[in-house]
């Protein structure tokens, strides 16, 4: 039964790329709202992906269940259509064709991103691999998952990106990938609207992921110490903040009013009233306007 505390009870979600970071935060918070969440990715107890990080889909699924939902890990390489088709067939068989929420959060592009060189000096193979990892995976996943939503004339697709403006993101292939993901939401929204299914893009602010904590040599317990290296880190947010934004969107009965938009945690917390894990409400756009705009220019209007 759906309640105010568990508004997504009875809902089924697929979080593609739920191993760590924003994907994990989204999966756990959908679980906290009562959803059954299929957590997918390449890193599992059976072996790590080429990123060679310790987080696994099983760990995320356990956190989903501990939060109050039901987490189901399913190892999937989203660049392989046959594996995604098998995943969707599994969901359809186990959930009687029900899929209410699709989150495309596959990324894994950090080691492929060259922040130092312009396009003409970058390795072409690496750049194209980034695009395949960060964009093609989303397309493949939607191609096979959307028929379940269309058949039921209900659902929400969430495309996770970085930034919700047309502002250049600092390097060619990274910028192209993150901009393309927003366009994926726009295009899906247009095609899905007649079927009652919404699609949005969403961005966190400065995300305090596992990898970012490691980068600053801190843990979640003492993360503020990282601000000594970068003052902007003091305005970062946990993956739970992004997760709560997505859970709020998924529970919104008027979600179709937002379809096709590029959204951000810093705008959605004002509308839905959610907080970060520590009870604060980070607002990276406000921080940008106060501290970074003079140096880097305006953040840009939302797309």
Record the strand order, biggest sheet.
3-2-1-4-5-6-7
- The average pLDDT value, as a whole number, equals 96
Beta-sheet strand percentage? 5-15%
Coarse shape: globular
What value does the Rg take, in angstroms? 18 Å
Helix content: 40-55%
Counting DSSP E segments of at least 2 residues, the number of strands comes to 7
What does this structure look like?
This protein has a 7-stranded parallel β-sheet, with helices on both faces. The two termini are 36 Å apart. The chain is α/β, with parallel strands linked by helices and 303 residues long. The longest helix has 29 residues, at 124-152. Helix content is 42%, strand content 12%. It is built from 9 helices and 7 strands; from the N terminus they run βαβαβαβαβαβααβαα.
How would you summarize this macromolecular structure in one to three sentences?
This protein has 303 residues and is α/β, with parallel strands linked by helices.
Features:
single chain; 303 residues; alpha/beta; 7-stranded parallel beta sheet; 7 strands; 42% helix
Topology (SSEs and partners):
Blueprint: E1 12-16, H1 21-32, E2 36-41, H2 57-67, E3 70-75, H3 81-94, E4 101-104, H4 124-152, E5 155-160, H5 172-192, E6 197-203, H6 210-216, H7 239-251, E7 262-264, H8 265-272, H9 284-296
Parallel strand pairs: 1-2, 1-4, 2-3, 4-5, 5-6, 6-7
Helix pairs in contact: 1-2, 1-7, 3-4, 4-5, 7-8
């Amino acid at each position: 039964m759906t309640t105010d505390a568990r508004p997504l009870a009875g809902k089924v979600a697929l979080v593609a790329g739920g191993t760590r970071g924003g994907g994990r935060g989204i999966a756990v918070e959908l679980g906290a709202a009562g959803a059954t969440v299929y957590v997918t990715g390449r890193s599992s107890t059976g072996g790590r992906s080429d990123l060679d990080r310790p987080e696994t889909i099983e760990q995320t699924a356990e956190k989903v269940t501990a939060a109050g939902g039901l987490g189901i890990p399913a190892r999937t390489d989203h660049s392989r259509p046959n594996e995604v088709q098998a995943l969707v067939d599994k969901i359809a068989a186990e959930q009687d064709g029900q899929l209410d929420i699709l989150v495309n959060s596959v990324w894994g592009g950090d080691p492929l991103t060259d922040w130092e060189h312009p396009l003409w000096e970058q390795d072409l193979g690496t750049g194209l691999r980034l695009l395949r990892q960060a964009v093609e995976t989303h397309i493949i996943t939607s191609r096979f998952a959307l028929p379940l939503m269309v058949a039921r004339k209900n659902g929400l697709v969430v495309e996770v990106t970085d930034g919700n403006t047309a502002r250049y993101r600092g390097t060619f292939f990274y910028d192209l990938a993150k901009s393309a993901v927003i366009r994926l939401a726009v295009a899906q929204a247009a095609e899905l609207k007649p079927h009652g299914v919404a699609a949005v893009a969403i961005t966190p602010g400065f995300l305090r992921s596992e990898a970012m904590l490691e980068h600053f040599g801190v843990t979640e317990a003492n993360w503020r110490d990282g601000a000594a290296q970068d003052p902007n880190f003091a305005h970062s947010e946990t993956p739970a903040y992004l997760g709560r934004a997505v859970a709020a969107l998924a529970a919104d009965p008027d979600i179709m009013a937002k379809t096709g938009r590029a959204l951000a945690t810093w705008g959605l917390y004002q509308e839905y009233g959610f907080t970060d894990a520590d009870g604060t409400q980070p607002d990276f756009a406000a921080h940008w306007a106060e501290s970074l705009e003079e140096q880097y220019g305006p953040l840009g209007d939302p797309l």
